[in-house]
Amino acid sequence: QPSQLPLCNSPVSSLCVTLKCLPLYNGSVSSLNITLHWHPLYNGSVSSLNITLHWPPLYNSPVSSFCITLQSALCITAQWGAFVHEFSGSLCTTGVPNYRKIPYSENTRPGTVTSTFGLVKPEVNFIVTSQSNYTTSPVNNSYCRDVQDRLLTVSLKKRYSEDYYIQTVNDLQNCTWHKRPEERSKFRLDLSSCCNGVKNFIVSQNNTSVGINITYEVESKKRILITEEIYRMLPKSQPFDGTPFKQCAVVGNGGILANSGCGVEIDQSDFVFRCNLPPTSGNVSVDVGNKTNLVTVNPSIISQKYRKLNKVKNVFLKYVSNYGNSLLLLPAFSYSSNTAISFEVHRVLEKNQAKQKAVFFHPNYLKNLAKFWKGKGVRAYRLSTGLMITSAAMELCEEVILYGFWPFSKDLEGKPISHHYYDNMLPKPGFHAMPKEFYQVLQLHHKGVLRLQIGKCEKR
């Protein structure tokens, strides 16, 4: 809202502003809101304002609008192409109204708004370009409040289409993201009170002891006795020296990461979490980076791809060597069927003096975490690995950025994409509540608790 008071007793009063806005390229929403406080000089001989608005509506965009409000306007005329429309006080359009239906092209004459208070007409130019950059797109605060209101009124009892979520993300992309330390601290306190991931994220010698029985996370009627042998497998304490980390990246495996160019940005993080042994070497590193500090391991991958480590140990060891000095996190105590495979991974890594170390989710942490998210409306057979890791990162890190969190079959422009950046294998239907989880992530993004990176990363 640029404003300027004219000089007292000045014979000329004028305002000159250049405003560059960056609406989403091929986005579903493109809008511009301008409010000018224009005070013609009291008893001045000349006081004038001329606005030329260059507003290219986005091609194929269902909404492309501008809204101009002028205070102290005496007579205002708006011209779009060959059409003239008089208005008083403000002019707002949605798309190109019926009486201004002009095909967009580079040769289309821009709309002009002229308000004359005197003899001289200095200009105020508003230049709008169609180029995507969500972190710098200035949008009216009321617009972002509308987006927030829509997020707050979403019912998690209803099912929403992919298009609804994609539309919502496009809307959020128009609002500049700001981290909000007070919201971040509040959410972190709630998580800590419930789950205390700093002390209980991983089973360690300081949160369990020999001779106790641990109840499995999902199979609540089954228990496992912590023997001396199992106890020796456990780290002495939580293996996260230096916490809280300043900035963490939680890298999901969504197809949205393909061609994102986010690799450099991810690798600049202080701590990088990954899920389910994803590929990071070769051409994909440009998009997903190489750095890994912790990566989860689904025991089913060990069973299916590495035949429970029978006769293919070297293949497994060579693959995980790409993760450097990382922690391999396994759900050894979620299902009883996971235990032997998880212990075998630990044994193979230790016996072969691998740089990677196997650690295990604490089942009590995961059970408490499920209750925490259930209280927020996420009801599923089990939380996704991505949400588990994001939750832990929120306690272990000062700032959290999510990459590759995109459970949809289309990108922001509606183009089909694969489920993962490396394959198109879909999850079991109904096993995870992906849309509801994604909604929670959107909420946290909008509140400034974490940042959700969607689309291409900027070169820094």
UniProtKB/TrEMBL annotation:
Superkingdom as given in the UniProt entry: Eukaryota
Keyword tags: Disulfide bond, Glycoprotein, Glycosyltransferase, Golgi apparatus, Membrane, Signal-anchor, Transferase, Transmembrane, Transmembrane helix
MF terms (GO), sorted A to Z: sialyltransferase activity
Membrane topology: Single-pass type II membrane protein
Transmembrane regions: none
GO cellular component: Golgi membrane
Compartments it resides in: Golgi apparatus membrane
Primary localisation category: Golgi
Family: Belongs to the glycosyltransferase 29 family.
Protein name: ST8 alpha-N-acetyl-neuraminide alpha-2,8-sialyltransferase 6
